[in-house]
Amino acid sequence: MHQRTTPPTGSASPTGRRRLARKALIAAASALGVATALMTPVRAGAAPAPAAPAAATPLAANGQLSVCGRELCNASGQPVALNGMSTHGTQWYAQCVTGGSLDALAKDWRADVLRVSTYVQEDGYETDPAGFTARAQKFVDAAHARGMYAVIDWHMLDPGDPNANLSRAKTFFTAMAKKYKNHPGVLYEIANEPSGVSWSAVKSYAEKIIPVIRAEDPDAVVLVGTRAWSSFGVSEGANESEVVNNPVRASNIMYTFHFYAASHRDEYLKTLDRASDKLPVFVTEFGTQDYAGEGANDFTMSQRYLDLMKRKKISWTNWNYSDDHRSGAVFKTGTCDGSTWTGTGVLKEAGVWIRERIRQ
């Protein structure tokens, strides 16, 4: 968010082996539906009923993603747009990321992707690097088990210069890339919302972190935050031209853009439109409320953004999949203490609205 979030109350080459391993993981995901059908009992003397074809999960259907031109493409080279949700900070809302809640996200909401947000400060990663790395991996694995992609979000906020956490970021992304180097279902988001620093500083950081990831995982898409809270600089008086004219020196990357519809009006919408004409863009965070993720929802402005993103095949994840008291959390307060996750009865107004659009 555009504001500090306060707590709640064999002989093959290494690259060839990685690709074979990724294909095996995709095949296993595809086979899961077939195996389930094969294990369905048949009554004695009855003709077997034809098994209904299992719908392929987003991960099984699309496989390894890559950037082709200005779009995100699947393993067949076809443009795809992922739609899904972002967790809140897992130091506060791990109880909202459960088997039941992720089943609901994958099956009831029909989401393609889960963004796993690991805060760096604010009682996050810096307090227990090993513990928060393991927690992120647990949630990434859970998304994969349900056929969803996972965005691994390094959720830096304050300090706004990503270079301030460079050493920590190298350690975190080395661990994550080592674990997922053979898996097609990850995207690495290396800096959530840089602020108060120049684009050249953000670019310099990206050009230090991307090689760390590529050393372990040469194939996955990397998502690069833009300055001024990932607004392409608009929130600090700039625009996308600074990125267009001085792009990160790396391939298979996309740039991130964040917006909160009640605060970020036509100037931001036009920036997203212009930027996505020239750069590959992934909207890794947005809300229907103000920049703090609270207040009244502006669904009319939000729909204008969604219409643009649909038309241009821009992927997105909405903030956030928790029961925080703010209006931007999709679940009603107290939901994460229970066991009911499906349907609209447990959702706030924003949750009902975004669930419907993910399901479309």
Task: Summarize the amount of helix as a percent range.
Answer: 25-40%
Low-confidence parts, pLDDT < 50 over ≥5 residues?
10-15, 30-53
Write down the overall geometry.
globular
Strand content: 5-15%
Please outline the helices and strands.
Blueprint: H1 14-38, H2 58-62, E1 66-68, E2 71-73, E3 83-86, H3 90-93, H4 99-108, E4 113-119, H5 129-145, E5 149-155, H6 166-180, E6 186-189, H7 199-216, E7 221-224, H8 227-230, H9 241-244, E8 253-260, H10 266-278, E9 281-287, H11 299-311, E10 316-319, H12 349-359
Parallel strand pairs: 3-4, 3-10, 4-5, 5-6, 6-7, 7-8, 8-9
Antiparallel strand pairs: 1-2
Helix pairs in contact: 6-7
Describe this structure in words.
Helices cover 39% and strands 14% of the residues. With 360 residues, the protein is an alpha/beta fold. The longest helix is centred in the N-terminal third of the chain and has 25 residues, at 14-38. It is globular, with a radius of gyration of 20 Å. The two termini are 26 Å apart.
Keywords:
360 residues; alpha/beta; eight-stranded parallel β-sheet; 12 helices
What's this entry about, in short?
The chain is built from 12 helices and 10 strands. The chain has helices spanning 14-38, 58-62, 90-93, 99-108, 129-145, 166-180, 199-216, 227-230, 241-244, 266-278, 299-311, 349-359, and strands at 66-68, 71-73, 83-86, 113-119, 149-155, 186-189, 221-224, 253-260, 281-287, 316-319.
